[in-house]
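Blinded run. Sample ID left blank on purpose so nobody reads anything into the name before looking at the predicted structure. Input follows.
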Amino acid sequence: MRHHQVPELHRVPLTEVVLQIKKLGVGGSAQSQSVGDQNGSVGSGDPVEFLKNALEPPDPKAVAAAVATLREIGALERLRSNNSRKNGQTENKQPDGGGDLTPLGHHLAALPVECRVAKMLVYGALLSCVSPVLTIAACLSYKSPFLDGRSGAGATGRYVLRVSQIQAHCLPPLVECTASNT
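Blinded prediction complete.
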C-alpha cells in the first residue's frame, strides 16, 4: 500500500488541464510573452513543455492523448501536414501540444465540466434546447448511485447485474404488449 496518494496528474484524464494551459497561454515560447498580449499568445500555450516542469510530470502519452481528444472534439485546431521531407520523414514544425484554441475551445475552457459535456452544453444553448441538455449533462457528470465504488463486484454491483438480467428477461414481452396495443 502506498504511503501517499497517487498525484492527480497520473489519475485523471488531462483534457481539462491541457485546455486550461492553452487558454492561459503558458508553457513553451508562449510563456515568454505576457498573457493577453495582442500577438496571439492567449490560446497558444504548450502543455507538453509546461507539464514537464511538474513535480511528478504525467506520461507524455497521456498528454498526447489529451491533445488528440481536444482536437477530436474541435477545441484545438488540427495540425496542418507539412509535405516538406527531411531525411525521408515528414517535418512537423509544431510541438506535440501544438495547435491553437478554436473559438469553441475558448468556450469549453470557461465551463467547469468535462470537455465533451461542455461541448454538449454549448451546442444545446446554440440550438435552444438548454433544459433537456442540462438534464443529460447532469446525469453524465456524476457516477451512478447503483455502482459500488470499490470494484463493481460488491452487493450493489450484484444487485445491478440482477436487475439488468430481470429487465432483459421482461423487456421483450413488454415491447410486444405495447406494440399490439398501438
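Unblinding after everyone has recorded impressions. The CA atoms of residues 7 and 142 lie 22 Å apart.
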